[in-house]
């Protein structure tokens, strides 16, 4: 029985490594569909920063909701939670505006990047 479990674990790990390998190959510089120059690399970096900003904003929203739920009627804690929620929402809006601006600017410059 242990051998069967060990074999399945190995097969799952091998499948995960194959999937990771195919993902990494899709970002390889020799793949003409991905990196066609400096512009597409800059586009990729901009997308990474935007995704990180959206992720941090979502974490701030979640933290604000938790603060609001645990404020138990305390006015200071409720106000702190409202500020956290406000800044999380502002972060999402700014991130979406940054993505839209990046897309418009790169399209105007003729850069076709990743995403």
Helices, strands, pairings?
Elements: H1 2-26, H2 38-69, H3 75-109
Please describe what this structure looks like.
The protein is mostly helical and 115 residues long. The chain folds into 2 domains: 1-30; 35-115. The chain is 80% helix and 0% strand. The protein contains 3 helices and no strands. It has helices spanning 2-26, 38-69, 75-109. The protein is flat. The mean pLDDT is 78.
List the keywords.
115 residues; 3 helices; mainly alpha
Count of individual beta strands: 0
How would you classify the helix and strand content by structural class?
A: mainly alpha
Helicity range of the residues? Answer: over 70%
Distance between the termini: 46 Å
Q: What's the domain count? A: 2
Strand content: under 5%
Q: What would the principal axes of the Cα set say about the shape?
A: flat
């Amino acid at each position: 029985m242990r051998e069967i479990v060990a074999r399945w674990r190995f097969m799952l790990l091998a499948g995960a490594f194959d999937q990771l390998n195919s993902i990494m190959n899709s970002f390889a510089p020799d793949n003409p569909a991905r990196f066609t120059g400096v512009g597409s690399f800059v586009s990729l970096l901009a997308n990474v920063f935007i995704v990180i900003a959206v992720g941090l904003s979502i974490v701030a929203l979640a933290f604000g909701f938790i603060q609001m739920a645990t404020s138990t009627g305390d006015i200071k804690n409720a106000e702190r939670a409202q500020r956290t929620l406000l800044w999380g929402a502002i972060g999402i809006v700014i991130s979406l505006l940054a993505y839209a601006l990046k897309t418009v600017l790169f399209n105007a410059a003729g850069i076709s990047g990743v995403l």
